[in-house]
UniProtKB/TrEMBL annotation:
Transmembrane segments: none annotated. It comes from Lachnotalea glycerini. This is Trp operon repressor family. GO terms for molecular function: DNA-binding transcription factor activity; sequence-specific DNA binding. SUPFAM superfamilies: TrpR-like. Coiled coil: none annotated. It comes from the Bacteria.
Amino acid sequence: MGKTIRTKAVDHLFQGVLSLENAEECYTFFEDVCTVNELLSLSQRFEVARMLREHRTYLEIAEKTGASTATISRVNRSLNYGNDGYDMVFERIKIEDEEEKIQE
């Protein structure tokens, strides 16, 4: 049986994340919760996913992000066979970006 991430501790962490109201609060919280390397790794994976969705090549992604081909491959596997979390967030970001442009 594999490990489950659905625990009370993870629920509490997510409740904390959901309480954050802006990017500055995210910086404050995540700088306390994560090491610099952990935060940079998470942001790198997110950039890799974004670039994969833009149909960029592995070589281009590796050069731009510094990610290994193993990391790019893992992120690609998540995009293709995961829980669609990246796509859900990308869609929401796209909607927010469009709403901001309309308001300008």
